[in-house]
Amino acid sequence: MNIRKLVSAFTLLPFFLLGNDDNFLIHIRASAFSNGSCKLIWRPTDTPKAGNLFTVEALNENDVWAAGSGNFLHWDGSRWNLVAKPVAGDVRGMVAIATNDVWAFGFNADSNFILHWDGVAWSTAFNPNESVMGLVAFSENDVWAMGLANEYYHWNGVTWNTSAYGSPVPNATILGMDGAAANEMWAVGYTGTTPATTPIILRFDGNTWNEHHSLLTGPYSYLDAVRVVSADDVWAAGNLQVAVHWDGNAWSSVGLPNPYPVFRSLTAVAADDIYGVGSEIVHWDGESWQVVATPGILLNAVDAVSASDVWAVGRRSKIVHGTSIAQVRARAPKDNSELPEGKVSLRWQDQDCADYYKVVLRRDSPKGKKITRAAVSENEFLTRPLQPNDDYFWRVRACDSVRCSDWSKWRSFHIVP
Predict the structure, then answer these.
(1) Across the strands, what pairs with 153?
(2) What residues are paired with 346 via a beta bridge?
(3) Residue 99 to residues 8, 54, 59, 244: CA-CA distances in angstroms?
(4) Whole-angstrom distance, CA of residue 86 vs CA of residue 281
């Protein structure tokens, strides 16, 4: 489902703390700290088994939640950890306000539920009459949830209140929800019964829900994802051959790459930096939608920490991470090689979006005496002359303005006279 996240935009300026074990020689690329044109590298992550995953919510690079048919999963910056769920059933969506203030919704065979994380544990906060299909938060005292067909729910900081929204569309089924403010919310889904379904878009003005024309028709068609970038910049998509866009005055159709992707979720970093997932991972760059990755499995949700840090989740505990940098592959010298006395050229695979690389060289073992720690702009580092009859160990990692990748595996070489 599509969940609103509160984001604070800021500019991160480069800085280095030099001292102790971080004495790096600094040589930064002229184009450093500008990732606007970088394509993300999408890689699967090691994930504990947690069933099918339906939702992901990213607060920051060290605080990401994922959930579905199994227990909750939490990313702490280095690994995914299982976190107990207080009820059985599927968690279908989440929204995070703070590290200790996260909401989730779902259902099981006996009831519908809204859950809350207080920083210590998940607990059941409310049992709505209908299955919730969308959740949006504007503050800790202003959280909205929308039911499958007839009701919507509001958290005022003390209690959940229930209201009938009186859908203007007969037989409406809601599949997604998002909003810019409490008087500017959108919901998408379909009306009718399979296979004769028609996509719908509803808009809430603070008092009533009204239907908006979605421009889409066709048998068994629906809208599953909606993302509000701003009041005059709203996207919706589903299983049709186009996405639709609201510019503040009217909806228009926007073409998609062929074969046409199926959308299950949307997330926006900026007006010209939007990701959608489903059958593919697609990206809007302000001019067109393009497929950027094919995960090989249906993805159900996507959320972004930043332009260089995006998460997507799907079936069978699948989680893929899109970053501007990835673990570096060392190239030369070959591992366990013997080299003549003198300077040694350490080389590794270049990454387009890396601003610089950190290199570490040690003698005798990976925990041995530090010979060099350096930050260089190119994918090569020339050591000083190394003394013979010693073993040397080195590794490297890529960095951008926000983070560094994992270190490469240690490589070794031996200097002979």
Answers:
(1) 145, 162
(2) 381
(3) 14, 20, 7, 33
(4) 32
| pLDDT in the model for residue 80 | 98
Among candidate residues 78, 32, 75, the one with its CA nearest the CA of residue 53: 75
Following DSSP, what letter does each residue of 359-395 receive, concatenated?
A: EEEEESSTTSEEEEEEEESSSEEEPPPB-SSEEEEEE
Q: How far is CA 299 from CA 1, 293, 314, 337, in A?
A: 11, 11, 4, 43
Radius of gyration for the chain, computed over Cα atoms and rounded to the nearest angstrom: 25
Q: Comparing 173 with 304, which gets the higher pLDDT?
A: 304
Determine the length of the chain.
417
Phi-psi region of 110 (alpha: psi -120 to 50; beta: other; left: phi over 0): alpha
Q: Is 227 exposed, middle or buried (0-12, 13-18, 19+ CB in 10 A)?
A: buried
pLDDT, average across residues 358-367: 96
pTM given for the model: 0.81
Range with the poorest average pLDDT among 227-236, 393-402, 406-415: 393-402
Which SS3 state, helix, strand or coil, does residue 316 take? Answer: helix
The per-residue pLDDT for 1 is 36
Q: Report whether pLDDT(161) > 70.
A: yes
Structure tokens belonging to residue 103: 């909401």
In this model, does residue 26 exceed pLDDT 50?
Answer: no
Write the DSSP symbol of residue 327.
Answer: P
Beta pairing class for 337-340 and 330-332:
unpaired
What is the Cα–Cα distance from 143 to 116, expressed in whole angstroms? Answer: 12
Contacts of 411 (CB under 8 A, 6+ apart): 330, 333, 335, 393, 394, 395
- SS3 state of residue 161: strand
CA–CA separation, 380 and 357 (whole Å): 9
Task: Give the integer Cα–Cα distance in Å for 370 and 14.
Answer: 25
pLDDT at 350 over 80: yes
